[in-house]
Amino acid sequence: MGAIQLSQSPDGAPIFSVTARTPTNIAVIKYWGKRDEALILPLNSSLSVTLDPNDLAATTTVAISPAFEEDKLWLNGKEVSISDSVRYQNCLRAVRERAQGIEAGGEKASQEQLRSWRIHVASRNNFPTAAGLASSAAGFACLVFSLAQLLGVTEERPGDLSAIARLGSGSACRSLYGGFVRWNMGQASDGHDSIAEQVAGEEHWPDLRVLVAVVNDRQKDTSSTAGMQQSVRTSPLLLHRAKAVVPERMVAMERAIAARDFQAFGALTMADSNQFHATCLDTSPPIFYMNDASRQVIGLVEQWNAQAGEIKAAYTFDAGPNAVLFCLEADRGALLRRLLYHFPPSDSTPLNEYVESAELLKEASVSSADDIRDLPAPEISKEAKPGLQFPGELKYIMSTRVGMGPQVCEKPLEPLLLDARTGFPPVS
Ligand SMILES: Nc1ncnc2c1ncn2[C@@H]1O[C@H](COP(=O)(O)OP(=O)(O)OP(=O)(O)O)[C@@H](O)[C@H]1O
Ligand SMILES: C[C@@](O)(CCOP(=O)(O)OP(=O)(O)O)CC(=O)O
Questions:
Q1: Would the CB of 223 count as within 6 Å of ligand 1?
Q2: Which of 165, 199, 255, 428 has the most CB atoms around it within 10 Å of its CB?
Q3: Do 273 and 184 belong together in one domain?
Q4: Are residues 228 and 372 in the same domain?
Q5: Among the residues of 287-377, which ranges form H helices?
Q6: Predicted confidence band at 218 (pLDDT cuts at 50, 70, 90)?
Q7: Quick check: is 232 in a domain?
Q8: Between the CA atoms of 183, 121, 413 and 6, what dihedral angle is there, to the nearest 10 degrees?
Q9: How many CB atoms lie within 10 A of CB 348?
Q10: Residue 134 near residue 171, CB atoms below 8 Å
Q11: CB 392 within 8 A of CB 5
C-alpha cells in the first residue's frame, strides 16, 4: 500500500489522504524567547531528545479534495477553528506553495489543482494536550510532515520542512527528526537557516531511558508562547542566558551525547532546566510552571545523586509541572522504586494504571500496592533530611525512550480519523 490513499466522495470526487505519526521531543537545552514573533525565530539554539512515538505522538490524517469547501481541522475529535490562526495558516500556505502533484490509484492531481483544493486535517495525541508535554511540537510537525507527503513536497535544502513546522510552534521543528536534534537559531532575517538537524540517531544511545512523572494533566495557566513573550520583555537573565550561557552549553551537550557520557549529559540537562525556570522566576510578573510535586521530584533525584556520588538520574521540566527523568537502563528500576516510595499512587489508582509498563514494574520488583507500602526508605547521604511521602500527588508514571522521527502509517488506523467516503471525521 502506498503512502497516499485514494477514495471517492458520494458524487465521485477524488479524496486523496495520508496518515502519519510524529513524536514529541523534550528539550535538554531549552528554547525560551523569540527574536521574531511572526517567523518564530529563537533567541538561542536548543537541543532535544525525540521521545518514542509509541508512547508520545500525534497521529494525523490529511486529506485533499475538490469536494471540500474550506480548510478544516479536528483535534482529538473536536473541530478547532483555524481560519483566524496565523500559525496553522502559515503552515498550510507554506506546504501548499511547494505542492508538486499527486498520482495515486490511477488518479492524478496537478500542481494547480492542489494549490486550489481545500484540506481537511484530523489529529489525535496519545497523551495529554497542552499540559507541558509538547503536544504542539508533535502536532505541528505531524501536520507539516503528512501534508508534505500528500502534496509531493520534497525539501530543496535539508531542514526546509523543519523551518515550516517552526512556523506552527518553535519546538515543532525538532520533532521532524528522531534521536537527538539541534535547532540552529540561524542568523537570516527570513528564517531560512533557523532549522533543525539531527545530531545523533535514535539508535545512538541504546541504554538511555526516560520516565515521565505526570503531575497534572490540566491545561496550564500560561502558555509557552505567552510566557516567553513576558520573559523577553522583562527578564534580564533571559538575554544573558541566550548570549553567554547557551552557546557553550550546546557544544558541551553535543559532546556529551556523542560520547554517551551520562554524567555530563545529566549535569547539563538539570542545569539548563533549572536556568530556564529561573528565567521564568526572573520574569515580571513571575511565572511558576513547577509546583510542589515537581520540586519534590527534584529533591529525590538530587538526594539520590548525592548519595551515589554520581549522577544516577537527571530531571528536566518544560512549561508545566511534569518531570521528565533520564537514567541508564540499569538504574531504571531503582529510579522507579524511589519515585514510588515518595509518590505512592492514591488508594483509588490501580497499580497497572499508575505504571502501565509491566516490564518496568518487574525491574523495580514491585507487583502490588502492598509492595509499594513495604518499600524501604531510599538510602540517602548522612547530611540529607529524609524525604517525605506524597501519596496521590502524581497522576501516573510513563516509561519511554529515545525514538524515531515521523513515519507514514501504511495500515489503516482504528478508529479512522477521517472517513474515506466523506473526508470528515466518522460520526460515532
Ligand atoms: N495533534 C495536534 N495537531 C495539531 N495541533 C495540535 C496538536 N496537538 C496540539 N496542538 C496545538 O497545540 C496547542 C497546545 O500547545 P501548548 O504549547 O499550549 O501545549 P503543549 O505543546 O502541550 O505544551 P508545551 O509546548 O509547553 O510543552 C493546542 O491548543 C493546539 O493548537
Ligand atoms: C519550555 C519549552 O518547551 C518551550 C517550547 O515552546 P513552544 O515551542 O511551545 O513555543 P512557541 O514557539 O511559541 O509555540 C522549551 C523547548 O521545548 O525548547
A1: yes
A2: 165
A3: no
A4: yes
A5: 292-308, 332-342, 351-354, 358-363, 369-373
A6: low
A7: yes
A8: -110
A9: 7
A10: yes
A11: no
- Please give the Cα distance from 196 to 155 (Å, whole number): 13
How many angstroms separate the alpha carbon of residue 134 from the centre of ligand 1?
Answer: 6
Question: Is the CB–ligand 1 distance for residue 316 below 6 Å?
Answer: no
Q: Does one domain contain both 357 and 218?
A: yes
User: Domain range for residue 336?
Assistant: 208-401
How do residues 56-98 score in pLDDT, each as one tens digit?
A: 999 999 999 999 999 999 999 999 999 999 999 999 999 999 9
* Residues with C-beta less than 6 Å from any ligand 2 atom: 27, 30-32, 40, 46, 134, 136, 169-171, 224-225, 318-319
- At residue 378, the pLDDT reads 87
Burial group, residue 275, by CB count within 10 angstroms (0-12, 13-18, 19+): buried
Contact at 8 Å (CB) between 241 and 279?
yes
Q: Is the ipTM beyond the 0.95 threshold?
A: yes
Strand-pairing partners, residue 46, are: 183
Give the N- to C-terminal CA distance of the chain in Å, as an integer.
27
